Amino acid sequence: MDTIECIESRRSCRLYLDIPVEFEKVGTILNAGRLSPSAGNLQGWRFVIVTEEDLRKQLAEACMKQYWMEKAPIHIVICSVPESDKRMYGKRGEELYTIQNCAAAAMSMLLAAHDQGLGACWVGAFEEGMVRKALQMSESGKPMAVLTIGYSDETPVRTPKYALDNVTFIERWGNRIQDFAAYVGYYSQHVSKTMALGREMIGKFLEKWSK
After folding, report:
1. Which of 18-32, 72-86, 195-209 is least confident?
2. pLDDT tens digits, residue range 32-69?
3. How many CB atoms lie within 10 A of CB 46?
4. Looking at the structure, do residues 21 and 70 belong to the same domain, yes or no?
5. Strands 74-80 and 119-123: what pairing?
């Protein structure tokens, strides 16, 4: 499927079939995370694959007792390494960029899972100490998200989303676009005219220098 179709059709899945996931697909998901953007290309993330049933139960318990998670045969815990961003960007790197980096990786992984016909869910509610204990994490890492992955046993309905008019401002904060479709049409005409003018100027320039 193409990118936009993948984004539009992706859903959060919380019911999973008792079917193993091919590890080639897991590798593709991990690689999607690895290729995600990060501040300064520091790539300050680590991915922990969890397949053992007991560990999945511990993670479900740590994630505010969300026991549906146990049924997903694959859990990927996305962790940050805050110190790497802190060395480069200070407090902002440690407290913000690490979150942004891992969020970008999580989204890439969700789309890669969906593209391969798998269900997945991003879980952000967890007790950090319990996750650390389950994974025997060192102090250098910080758990940021848990992704559950498997073959879906449900067809989740599309959740309602705000219209672009409600979430988009133009030029300054609070300046809403009342009719986004009309604005896009106006903007497209503006771009077309500007490009035509640019082509005309380039043509004149080339004509001048060819003489």
Report:
1. 195-209
2. 999 999 999 999 999 999 999 999 999 999 999 999 99
3. 17
4. yes
5. unpaired
Give the CA distances from residue 190 to residues 169, 171, 176, 179, 187, in Å, rounded to whole numbers and listed in that order.
19, 16, 19, 17, 5
Spell 81-118 as b/e; 16+ CB within 10 A means b. bbbbbbeebeeebbeebbbebbbbbbbbbbbbbbbbeb
Specify whether the CB–CB gap between 144 and 82 falls below 8 A. no
- What are 165's two structure tokens? 């008019």
What is the identity of the amino acid at 145? Answer: A
| Residues in Cβ contact with 183 at an 8 Å cutoff, skipping those fewer than 6 apart | 170, 177
User: What are the start-end ranges of the E strands in the chain?
Assistant: 45-50, 74-80, 119-123, 142-150
Convert the pLDDT of each residue in 81-129 to its tens digit.
999 999 999 999 999 999 999 999 999 999 999 999 999 999 999 999 9
Q: pLDDT confidence of 184, banded at 50, 70, 90?
A: confident
CATH at 127 = 3.40.109.10
Structural domain count, the chain: 2
Residue 183 structural domain:
164-210
